[in-house]
Write a structure and sequence with these properties.
Shape: elongated
Number of helices: 10
Number of strands: 4
Oligomer: single chain
Radius of gyration: 26 Å
Structural class: alpha+beta
Strand content: 5-15%
Order of helices and strands: EEEEHHHHHHHHHH
Largest sheet: 4 strands, antiparallel
Helix content: 40-55%
Distance between the termini: 54 Å
Length: about 200
């Protein structure tokens, strides 16, 4: 599983401005061995140019006992980021989200449709994966029991694989025929008529 961790060792690296009234800019970085908190003081004082960024660096496992840094992280980046960072400091890595996307999409394609819908509600990353065109193309090819032609791929680029999957066969045949006519027709007015009547 260690091979799924990033080669540069960076598990989390985010930046953001502290909430008002502070204008300080912060970076929070976690690697496989340490935690780094940097602060750039933003001020209108004349001596601001002499202020260097402050930095705190400590071993990863020490973060769970550092109340001060935990407060700063929660204050600037929110409770969700703090909870995630605490898990990382305890050695709890999110291996599943580090699986290469093509492999993840391949695994998702074997789920039942109801499970894909539930999976999409777990987090933003899975929401995006479960709506990916590449996933629905695989699902379409697996479940529809028909050879995917070039014309069907062209129609999918226009309407999307997911929408194609949930379109009944009769409607899909009509859409496919009209789509093919629009592509092949040298007469723009004919293509326009086909487009206007597509949803009739």
């Amino acid at each position: 599983m260690a091979s799924l961790l990033p080669k540069d060792g960076v598990l989390l690296d985010i930046t953001g401005q502290a909430p008002a009234p502070s204008k300080n800019f912060n970076e929070f970085k976690i690697t496989t061995s340490e935690v780094i908190w940097r602060t750039w003081v933003i001020t209108l004082r004349n001596d601001a140019k002499r202020l260097s960024p402050g930095a705190t660096v400590e071993p990863l496992e020490d973060f769970q006992y550092d109340d001060r840094m935990q407060f700063d992280v929660g204050n600037v980046f929110g409770q969700g980021t703090l909870d995630y960072a605490t898990l990382l400091s305890q050695g709890v890595f999110d291996y599943i989200m580090r699986v290469p996307q093509p492999l993840m999409l391949y695994m998702l394609s074997f789920l039942e449709l109801e499970d894909i819908a539930r999976m999409s509600q777990t987090c933003k990353a899975f929401y995006e994966l479960c709506g990916a065109e590449a996933l629905w193309e695989q699902i379409y090819e697996t479940h529809c029991g028909t050879t995917v032609t070039d014309e069907m791929k062209s129609l999918a680029e226009e309407m999307g694989w997911k929408k194609m999957f949930f379109t009944n066969k009769l409607q899909l045949q009509v859409k496919l025929r009209r789509h093919t006519q629009r592509i092949k027709s040298p007469d723009p007015s004919a293509a326009g008529r086909a487009f206007l009547t597509e949803d009739d």
